[in-house]
Design goal:
Strand content: 15-25%
Structural class: alpha+beta
Shape: elongated
Largest sheet: 5 strands, antiparallel
Radius of gyration: 22 Å
Number of strands: 5
Number of helices: 7
Strand order of the largest sheet: 2-1-5-4-3
Helix content: 40-55%
Length: 164
């Protein structure tokens, strides 16, 4: 198959390692087996390699590590990918990462999970800023009608009316 594509395995791994994205591969034990160069740098470089470890072992936030691990198990069990955004709080403000994971099949058998991690911090911060602007009167700083309409959809009960 390598001849059909025109690349050998070493070249493909080199391409993936050099990709301008966070790419990883986990085996069926949810252990990291491959990370892109950017992923390595984020996790502290080669001396702090996450290769051979699960998220339960490497995540500082144990609840988040458990969530990632359980999500991996679910992907391996169901054969369906997942997608979510994780928040990482820091003193200077939160960072947000979109994580997309899919099972990898070989001859109808799942052999692992491939994932891409994208920094969406700028996008999420802009969305939050726009939401705040849409809910707040610029002159008074008070919540506006839009805020009340959105909030009432979440909290309205029939016995709450009439209200003013």
């Amino acid at each position: 198959m390598d001849e059909q594509i025109g690349f050998n395995l070493e070249e493909v791994l080199l391409f993936m390692k050099s990709a301008p994205a966070n790419i990883f591969f986990k085996d069926t034990e949810c252990k990291y087996r491959f990370t892109s160069e950017i992923c390595d740098l984020i996790n502290g470089g080669k001396e702090n390699s996450i290769i051979g470890k699960t998220d339960k072992e490497i995540q500082k936030n144990k609840e988040l590590g458990q969530f990632y691990y359980e999500d991996d198990l679910k992907i391996l069990e169901t054969g369906k990918g997942s997608e979510y955004i994780s928040e990482f709080p820091f003193e200077t403000g939160s960072l947000y990462y979109e994580i997309r994971k899919n099972p990898v099949f070989h001859q109808d058998k799942i052999i692992g999970i491939i994932g891409i991690v994208t920094d969406v911090t700028k996008q999420i911060r802009l969305e939050k800023e726009l939401e705040e602007l849409s809910f707040t009167d610029k002159l008074t700083g008070l919540h506006n009608r839009n805020y009340m309409e959105v909030r009432s959809k979440n909290y309205v009960r029939k016995d709450d009316f009439p209200t003013s």
